[in-house]
Amino acid sequence: MSKIQWLIFLALVIGISWLVAKIASKFKVPKIPCVALVTGGVKSGKSTLSVYMAIQTYNRVHRRWKIRVFFQELLHKPFDEEPLLYSNIPLAVPYVPITLDLLQRKVRPRYGSVAYVNEASLLADQMLSLKKDDTNERLTLFNKLFGHETIGGVLIYDTQCVADVHYAVRRSLSSYIYVHHLEKRIPFFLIAQVREERYSDDRGVINAYNEDVEESLKKVLIPKRVWKKFDAYCFSCLTDGLPVSDSVIEDCVDLKAREIVSFREYKTLMQKENKQ
User: Fold this and answer.
1) How far is 86 from 155, CA to CA, in rounded Å?
2) What are phi and psi of 40, to 5 degrees?
3) What are the tens digits of pLDDT across the range 195-204?
4) Average pLDDT over residues 90-96
5) Is 19 buried (19+), middle (13-18) or exposed (0-12) by CB count in 10 A?
């Protein structure tokens, strides 16, 4: 090759490397601690990201277990426990349902296992702390000692609001992943727009940034096949059998709201005073 060809080749290598680095800087590989939490608005994609993280983490852990077992078999050593994937919602992969006995530490998960809890505040919200039995202590020990109990396992929660989750979860966090939205425009892949937030339960979110939130988002690439692993509307079965509200009002003339639909009984509304 001539010097000019070498220079062109070198320029191409530098240009491609710069482009790859530029693209890579926009993407994020989530770093998953022992106890992790993903949050975001309703149907923002937090469950999609959480399920993906849980399954990917478990697959990685299980591959390592297979390698260890291979060498343990060669050396005629006892096998390690096979790690399992635990979940409180159905998954289209082998999993073990999470039970209250597991959460209360009456039974234990397999060593090295991965656990996923969907909608954590439904499992244990902040008001549960008012209970007078030993539930709070058991939940605190479950979260604080999960890494010890599983010998290095991973516990992943998702929720719409960090403040609504039981303090046993919040006080086990130093950070969480916030999902702003999910992009679906790329064939075969989803892009979760996320931000990692540092967290302290006494002071809340301790990140400080001045720019628009979308300017600080990172992208997480997720294969669309993750949607085949779980049902994003799995709790719809709790209301599917109810009567449907479908009383449509057409050509409404009076656009005044004559009442307030509320669980609260307002005692000072003018409408009520006129009726009396």
Assistant:
1) 9
2) 170, 170
3) 988 888 775 5
4) 97
5) exposed
Q: Give residue-wise pLDDT tens across range 7-24.
A: 777 888 888 877 766 666
The candidate with the shortest Cα–Cα distance to 52, out of 191, 245, 196, is 191
For residue range 169-215, list pLDDT tens digits in order: 999 998 999 999 999 888 899 999 999 888 887 755 566 666 666 67
pLDDT(31) > 90: no
CA atoms of 157 and 120, how far apart (whole Å)? 6
pTM (two decimals) = 0.85
* Residue 119 burial by Cβ neighbours in a 10 Å radius (0-12, 13-18, 19+): middle
pLDDT digit string (tens) for 99-138? Answer: 999 999 999 999 999 999 999 999 999 888 778 889 999 9
Question: For 101-104, which contacts have Cβ atoms below 8 Å and span 24 or more sequence positions?
Answer: 103/138, 103/139, 103/142, 104/135, 104/138, 104/139, 104/142
Joined together, the tokens standing for residue 187 give 């064939």
CB 219 within 8 A of CB 193: yes
